[in-house]
Amino acid sequence: MSTLVTGGAGYIGSTVVRELIRQGEDVVVFDNLSQGHRKAVHQDATLVVGDLADAGAVDSVFRTYDIDAIMHFASHTLVGESMEEPFLYLDTNIRCGLNLMRAAVEHDADRFILSSTANLFGLPDEMPITEETSIDPGSPYGESKRILERYLHWLDRTRGMTFAALRYFNAAGAAGPDHGEDHDPETHLIPIVLEVALGQRDEIVIFGDDYDTPDGTCVRDYIHVRDLAQAHILALRALKDGKSRVYNLGNGNGYSVREVIETAREVTGREIPARVGDRRPGDPATLIADAQRIRDELGWDPQFPTLSDIISTAWDWHVKHPDGYASVSERPS
Ligand code: UFG
Questions:
Q1: Which residue from 167, 188, 192 has its CB within 8 A of the most atoms of ligand 1, so it is best to mutate?
Q2: Sign of CA dihedral 116, 13, 57, 44
Q3: Please, which residues bridge with residue 207 across strands?
Q4: CA 24 / ligand 1 centre spacing (Å)
Q5: CATH code for the domain of 121
Q6: Kind of enzyme, top EC level (predicted)?
Q7: Are residues 240 and 262 in the same domain?
Q8: CATH number, residue 317
């Protein structure tokens, strides 16, 4: 039996694939390579290049391979972009997710892990954010994930699907010096800061310093991509008990944009010029996770909890591969 990983060539998906293979699982990656990289996909995984919008192609993957579990990463994932291009999220993300869920039900694949997000909680009035915090998505992106979570809820009730919705806070860091984050265009804070450190950009623009936070810049809970991967492995195994669940995934530590820049200066030894610009639409002031539930229930234990650990691994990747996967020679083994 195989695990189907959509978006398995992407930043988080490819890290999870690597971990699944290490644990001896058979993996089929389904990815349209619009954002992902062939050279990020572990050599022992089967890579099928295809688009979730094509229901026939999705069905054919289930007919060809013996799939009993699904991890669904493939998605548009940017809060800011979703405020500009809502239909990429409210239409494409939903339609692609539905094609996948329909095929899974038709082919009796009954364990499903969904990449969900802290953006479900919009502008939360309590911190840290637990799984009980009220849901009021902060953007079309967050809304698309909320809707997919609800669809899974109903497939659990009506079709015996068992699911885990994993609500990531800010994924960061690199899985290894040859396996890291490479987006085009890059919009995330840590890789942009490191591109400034490398001299690929002149400066980092801080999106607003008048938020209600200790230094006025936004506070986020950064979680290492390998710790995220570990949570997926634990959740996949746990679902064998037939019980669906939702988990928040973060370290419970909030770092401001200024603190991220300062830590990156310490890690890299570079100056990293910064200036303050306008706020970015859709950004909440503070997002910090309470991830006690997955720690208690599944024994999740993050190995890279500090910001300097996270930034150090990302820096090793950026220094070795300043142009990302263009300079990676082969698929990882
Ligand atoms: N930021 C800047 N300047 C930049 C880029 C980012 O100041 O050039 C700030 C943002 O305003 C934000 C923080 O840095 O306050 C982090 O921004 P990112 O773009 O790195 O990440 P987001 O918090 O916007 O979003 C990420 C993922 C989403 C996920 C969310 C959950 O991209 O998919 O974390 O917290 F939903």
A1: 188
A2: negative
A3: 277
A4: 34
A5: 3.40.50.720
A6: isomerase
A7: no
A8: 3.90.25.10
Ligand 1 atom closest to the Cα of residue 279 is: 11
Q: Which residues line ligand 1 (CB under 6 A)?
A: 77-79, 117-119, 169-170, 187-189, 192, 204-207, 218, 220, 257, 280, 283, 287
Q: Whose CA is nearest to atom 34 of ligand 1?
A: 170
Q: What is the DSSP letter of 176?
A: B
How many helices and strands (H and E) does the chain possess? 11, 13
CB 222 within 8 A of CB 169: yes
Give the count of domains, the chain: 2
**What is the average per-residue pLDDT within 293-306?**
98
Q: Give dist(CA 94, CA 88) in Å, integer.
A: 9
d(CA 188, ligand 1 centre) in Å: 6
Same domain, yes or no: 94 and 234? yes
Distance 69 CA to ligand 1 centre (A): 30
Give the dihedral of Cα atoms 183, 82, 146, 29; nearest 10 deg: -30
C-alpha 190/C-alpha 174 separation (Å) is 11
- What is the whole-number distance in angstroms between the Cα of residue 282 and the centre of ligand 1? 10
| Residue whose CA lies nearest to ligand 1 atom number 29 | 117
Confidence band for 123, pLDDT divided at 50, 70 and 90: very high
The protein residue with its alpha carbon nearest to ligand 1, atom 1, reads: 189
Closest Cα to atom 14, ligand 1: which residue? Answer: 189
Residue 186 pLDDT: 95
Whether residues 104 and 244 fall in one domain? yes
Compute, in angstroms, the gap from residue 189 CA to the centroid of ligand 1: 6
ipTM for the complex shown: 0.98
In a domain, 214, yes or no: yes
Measured distance CA(275)–CA(5) in Å, rounded: 39
- CA nearest 129: which of 112, 141, 116, 113? 116
Q: Tell me, what DSSP letter sits at residue 134?
A: P
- Is 221 in contact with 253 (CB distance < 8 Å)? yes
Tell me: pLDDT of 95 over 90. Answer: yes
Query: Which residues span the domain enclosing 205?
Result: 189-220+252-289+304-325
Residue 333 pLDDT = 86
**If you average pLDDT over residues 224-246, what whole number do you get?**
98
